[in-house]
Amino acid sequence: MELLDSSVDLREVQKLEGHADRVWSLAWNPAPHNCGGASAMLASCSGDKTVKIWQMGPTRQWECSTILEDTHTRTVRSCAWSPCGKFLATASFDSTTAIWKYVGGDFECVATLEGHENEVKCVSWSSSGMFLATCSRDKTVWIWEVQPGDEYDCVAVLQGHTQDVKMAQWHPLVDVLVSVSYDNSIKVWAEDGDSDDWHCVQTLNEGSSGHTSTVWSVSFNSSGDRMVTSSDDLTLKIWDTSSAVSQTDTESFAPWGHLCTLSGYHARTIFSAHWSSEGVIASGASDDAICLFVEQKGESVDEPSYRLLLKKEKAHEMDINSVRWNPKDWRILASASDDGTIKIWELREIS
């Protein structure tokens, strides 16, 4: 990470065009080698009702290798790969979530999850691969358990938000789920070990130094002891669990506490924030800019703080809906926009 101690630039590597409407969400395949030996694979979903799979071609240029279509009847709002990389889940405004399986060089729709009353806003796989979470404008979060034979059983309908749920994300190490909503709150959900019931174990809102407007996104650092949330209130907030989260001990839930607030960097709603494996936070907003933040080293140990590493103005021509770091190459960032394009960026040192 010596790179981050020097001057850096976010260089545009390639602009990917092909979607006929805004691009809502992006997902890097965490195990692309399970899909025909691909070195890297990126999924994008759009208001054009399609999902596109992008791969690096022989000329080192990104190309669309597959289009998943004729399954969703409305906007595809979110896409997420399973930890093994063989399954892609896609959530749509048509109230359904489709599960695609990579079989013999092709993607096949093997399941359609139904039950939400209206738009599904986000889908997320647990790190164990055992659970899938979907959240919706109907104010609920559903937890699905993966069964043999590509079957998915709804094991919980989580009710607690009073408005549209914008995103749900699983913790990177344990089966704990965090959801964020139009009701300005962040909720943490966990399974009761005795009853197997899922319940809300913590709510972070204005009273706990939380956001004062819609919360759009949540992302965890790789060790799972911090998370970042982004909001319509033009801030990013960093949250911390001081007690270490261990794989074996989910019973002793460690509550999240507010660590710091990053404000004054974006002029409009911050739709997306994503934490890289090397600790760089990327944010994308409706001011068309991308910001990168890193922890400020050498300051007081008691009060960790984050500093702006760089700001890329006019990164896109319109709102930026999603920013995602490549899990296999921490210097590579992908962004998606209302302008219908996806951009691949490389973080590099300025000599």
Which short descriptors sum up this protein?
0% helix; mainly beta; 4-stranded antiparallel beta sheet
The averaged pLDDT comes out at 93
> What proportion strand?
over 45%
Class derived from helix and strand content: mainly beta
Helix percent band? under 10%
Give the helices and strands, then pairings.
Blueprint: E1 8-16, E2 23-28, E3 41-46, E4 51-56, E5 62-68, E6 76-81, E7 87-92, E8 97-103, E9 106-113, E10 120-125, E11 131-136, E12 140-147, E13 151-159, E14 165-170, E15 177-181, E16 186-191, E17 198-204, E18 215-220, E19 226-231, E20 235-240, E21 257-263, E22 270-275, E23 281-285, E24 290-296, E25 305-312, E26 320-325, E27 332-337, E28 342-349
Antiparallel strand pairs: 1-28, 2-3, 3-4, 4-5, 6-7, 7-8, 8-9, 10-11, 11-12, 12-13, 14-15, 15-16, 16-17, 18-19, 19-20, 20-21, 22-23, 23-24, 24-25, 26-27, 27-28
Question: In summary, what is this structure?
Answer:
This protein is mainly beta and 351 residues long. The protein is 0% helix and 53% strand.
How would you describe this structure to a colleague?
- The chain is an all-beta fold and 351 residues long.
- Helix content is 0%, strand content 53%.
- It contains no helices and 28 strands.
- The protein has strands spanning 8-16, 23-28, 41-46, 51-56, 62-68, 76-81, 87-92, 97-103, 106-113, 120-125, 131-136, 140-147, 151-159, 165-170, 177-181, 186-191, 198-204, 215-220, 226-231, 235-240, 257-263, 270-275, 281-285, 290-296, 305-312, 320-325, 332-337, 342-349.
- The strands form seven sheets. The protein has a four-stranded antiparallel β-sheet, with no helix packed on it.
- It starts with 7 loop residues before the first strand and ends with a strand.
- The model is unreliable at 244-251 (pLDDT under 50).
